[in-house]
Amino acid sequence: MTTVRIDATQPRQTIANFAASDAWACQFVGTWPAAKKEAIADLLFSTEATANGQPKGIGLSMWRFNFGAGSVEQGEASGIKDEWRRAESFLTPAGTYDWTRLAGQRWFLEAARRRGVRQFLGFLNSPPVSLTRNGKAYATAKQPNLAPDRYAALGDYCARIIEGLRKSTGITFDYISPVNEPQWDWSDGGQEGTPFSNEEIAGLTKAVSTSLVARKLPTQILVAEAGKLDYLFTTADKPGRGDQLGAFFTDAAVPTYLGGTPRVARIIAGHSYFTTSPHALAVATRQQLASRVATVPQLTYWQSEYCILGDNAGEINGSPRELGMAPALYLARVIHHDLTVANATAWQWWLALSPYNYKDGLVYVDKNKTDGAFYPSKMLWALGNYSRFVRPGAVRLAVEPAVAAAGTSTLLVSAYRSANGQQLITVVVNEATTPVALQLELAGRRLGASQPYTTSATTDLQPGPPVPAGQVLHLAPRSITTLVSELR
Fold it and tell me: DSSP labels for 179-241?
């Protein structure tokens, strides 16, 4: 039997949200027949349960909305070969704003709100094509695709969209993320995108800040969505694009400092790609990041984009699509390390919906613009073991050991006190191929009965029999179990 000790007197970070993005399939799936898109929205956003306690969905607490650059209007001339990776824009070629555009995306935006989502973020992969250097939504010359004399126009564009969506949908965006993975060149036409140096990011961020303040919008700016975590705390192989903690938040004397800029969130955001395997690298990278973030007062870290990409040191490959438990367990391990080692206060997935033969989707859809089938993955439910129960305002608690021996594999354990202080939420990842007996011990509070929810090869957040306080829980092989326990 494995005993895990949780200490309620040792709080760690406060959780802000779990999220996913609407790029790119929502533009089409949002116009599918009502019954199908409503069912998909339930899977992503619902916090309701059936009569027997089965969750209907994973209860994402934030939704990321793509402020497209307008490559859809350009069609084949956009240079982006896959039309599912082109994006529409509210800004028309005539220079006016049309709030009936992005209809499919707006449907999911409002579906999220109807199901209780209260946090919203707008992001840009590229400035709108009318502002870019080459008139396209990707950087053909491997240079930043926005000239400095267009920063103010980009700021106005961001503020106009936030203001327009507030008027047309009633939703005020909490965050705007104007830059995505600025370390990459984005020159192959695979999707909308552009590189930026830290100096350029600082300049355009200040321009967005000015426009938000001028329009009296409360939206905060999120920087800088680094392409991998190393670029947040080291220069690595990208001089002028790395050490973004140092550039934006550490030294008020440097010209790129954004710590005192109005509307800039006290958050540094990065993506977990290329840093998740092997285990020693994953842990060491996140330890270094957490250590650096801790040196900056009131700064928090968000893991703001991830899917299973690359070969991951031979542990798992991003291709092909796989709906089963192997990618779900790998994903749960990544989430665990980001939360317990890097101290991430938010954890966000890339494609909520994917038509691709890749491990990049929570729900997979047929590549059909008007109608098709959809296929929930075990990765959806693995994320749900966290997102459905660890709600905004929950506080992570110290766990010993966070990685516990269990046969030939490991248990990954993390624990969270609910925002109202009345529940303990414990997430246990059992990678072993055999059942494991687990007992929880809690210091600082009394532990009541626990309700387990298990994702396995045969279950999707399935509720099990309640476990009385002090009783041993038997974990299924290759499973993820969330225990919702009473605190006394």
Answer: ---TTS---SSSSSB----HHHHHHHHHHHHHHHHHTT--PEEEEEEESSTHHHH--TT-TTT
- Residue from 51, 73, 68 nearest 105 by CA: 68
Helix, strand, coil share (%) of the chain residues, nearest 5: 25, 25, 45
- Nearest CA to 54 out of 469, 454, 467 is that of 454
* Residue 241 token pair: 């694009």
Q: Which domains does the chain have, with CATH numbers?
A: 17-392 (3.20.20.80), 399-487 (2.60.40.1180)
Classify the phi-psi angles of 24: left when phi > 0, otherwise alpha if psi is within -120 to 50, otherwise beta. alpha
User: Hey, what are 389's tokens?
Assistant: 């129960």
CA separation for the pair 438, 445 (Å, rounded): 19
Q: How confident is the model at residue 482 (pLDDT cuts 50, 70, 90)?
A: very high
**pLDDT higher for 176 or 141?**
176
DSSP letter string over 188-203? Answer: SSSSSB----HHHHHH
- State which amino acid sits at residue 391: R
pTM, rounded to two decimals: 0.97
Q: Give the integer Cα–Cα distance in Å for 192 and 24.
A: 11
What's the pLDDT tens digit per position in 111-162?
999 999 999 999 999 999 999 999 999 999 889 999 999 999 999 999 999 9
